[in-house]
Amino acid sequence: MNNKSFYVTTPIYYPSDKLHIGHTYCTVATDALARYKRLCGYDVMFLTGTDEHGQKIEEKAKEAGKTPQQFVDDIVTGNGGILDLWKLMNISNDRFIRTTDDYHVESIQRIFRKMYDKGDIYKGAYKGMYCTPCESFWTESQLVDGKCPDCGRDVHYAEEEAYFFRLSKYAKPVQELLEGGEFLQPASRVNEMINNFIKPGLEDLCVSRTSFSWGIPVDFDPGHVVYVWVDALSNYITALGYLNDRYDDMDRFWPAHHIVGKEIVRFHSIIWPAMLMSLELPLPKSVYGHGWLVIDGGKMSKSKGNVVDPYVLADMFGVDALRFFLLRTFPFGSDGNFSNELLISTINTDLANDLGNLVSRTTAMVEKYFGGTLIAEREADDVDNELVELLKATAGKYEAQMDKFQLHLALEDVFRLIQRANKYIDETAPWVLAKDEAKKPRLATVMYNLLEALRVALTLLKPFIPASCDEALEQIGGTDFATWENAFLYGVLPETVSVHKGGTLFPRIDMNKALEALEAAKKKTEPKTEEVSKFPPVLPQISFDEFSKVDLRVCRILACEPMKKSDKLLKFTLDDGSGTPRQILSGIHQFYEPQQLVGKKVVAVLNLAPRKMMGQDSNGMLLSASFEENGKEELHLLILDDAVPAGFQIS
Ligand code: MSP
Fold first, then answer.
1. pLDDT for 39-65, tens place per residue?
2. Global pTM?
3. Which ligand 1 atom is nearest residue 268's CA?
4. Element at 258 (helix H, strand E)
5. CA–CA separation, 297 vs 561, rounded Å?
6. String of b and e for 326-344 (b: at least 16 CB within 10 Å)?
7. How far is the CA of 112 from the centre of ligand 1 (A)?
8. Among 17, 26, 302, 337, which residue has the most ligand 1 atoms within 8 Å of its CB, making it the best to mutate?
């Protein structure tokens, strides 16, 4: 064991919506790395969290009729929220930071001031093209076909007084850092950064906003809030206690390895190192830009209705099966095409057939042939050598891949061992050996070798599928021997090891049935999505006093006639209870004929400012429910029970 430290982070997620399988992918991968380093004996700090400020969250909260804090609280800590998702996915983070946490807010204000005092932040005016969803300003040359280069959406010209960070000052050292080799991985991302961002010239970065208020205030200039990337990126140090009293772990853990999605590599490999240079702090050890999970080659999006819910998949196939699939199938640095078929076939092939079968066949044979406990006698054979050699070599190969963040290749090495062990069963035919009492020592050797191969494989799989490995290790009598050091050795399990055959670790999945069940689960949630997207969002809150200013009355329709020269307008004469008939015009002729309405009780707004339409006064407005779909409008007047007298006020 050594006590070297390893600090690894995920991006902090926007709590603007429920997280999906793409976010889960990133967190599960980081979790596997953290668990791997713990297994190797490192002092690990694994940080994840949420990026809670910004205009988008402010707008979403408004749409939902909540304060921004209530809104993010619901998504982060609410039922089925982000914390619940990480718990379900067995994420072993040591810390969880929310950018609304007091200590983070305090640190950010100090960080901002520190860079300002140093002259690295100055006040200016921002003029440029702004993408609201991405909260990013872009130069003309960065736009792609006139659209935001990150999300492809429209941008608009915007101008505001703002503070700037002297990013340009750090262009040279940042380029040197990128060219140095180790910092940004995979290496293919280095050229992308240098060619697309550094070579065209690094402009100073706008780091404050006055156009919205949901952010950390610049304490020396009210009206400005800290722009979200300075707030967000700094989480990696504030969570260790940088410029706050909450923690004191900078010396112990900083610098970090940052795992991030490819679209935010720019922020982590250019802006973040420049900020750290300004703060005179050590630079991150590495930034790994992983690929995206896509569907049919395209982005997952709510509007396409193809967002994959990790809760549904974990519920249907199990947490470990889902974790495994994500890391086994897609090369970590590239995009991966997600499909349910691929998920199911990976579970069936690797987990049910190869791993699950090896565990159940081996434990079943040890129980059947030895009553569960091996005898100490042994008899080796040349056929054992290849398996034993592979068993001893696997951890080293795995380590080399894990240290390069090549999680899928590390898993490939483990599965090579598992497949070799399955082949070894066919080669040694234990059921034939079992028929001859004299072959018992040979049979014991075969069983022992299988158990040893499993011990190594399960130890190395622990970071990926921890709960299943614990269970399987228990079954093969390997719980106390699943250490990193032992993973390199042969002959670790006791000679007379005892096994306990348990339940099926990974049941085979019927592809058709599972696909049908997934389709049904999707349908179940569809109407909800429809409801949300079909109708306009709830308007911003008003006070009761404001509402009380609207004079709503029950009125009886005394007369109704079409307006000449108008297809739409009907002229109503109403009894509003005042004794004087009231005239209101309403454009509803396409929905009602006058004779249908005479005598009916309706609701009108009486104190709406009068309007002239086609030369006639309209003194109020009739209330109706209307809805437009595919350019076709539907409308229903609010018609009351005849028992309600005209003139009654509605409140
Ligand atoms: N809040 C910023 C990060 C600030 S870090 C200082 C942010 N948040 S995010 O919620 O939009 O994205 C968080 C991470 O999820 C990103 O790394 C992003 O790449 C990742 N993913 C989002 N969708 C994804 C897929 N479909 N596939 C893989 N990862 C994806 O950006």
1. 999 999 999 999 999 999 999 999 999
2. 0.80
3. 6
4. strand 257-261
5. 58
6. bbbbbebbeebebebeebb
7. 24
8. 26
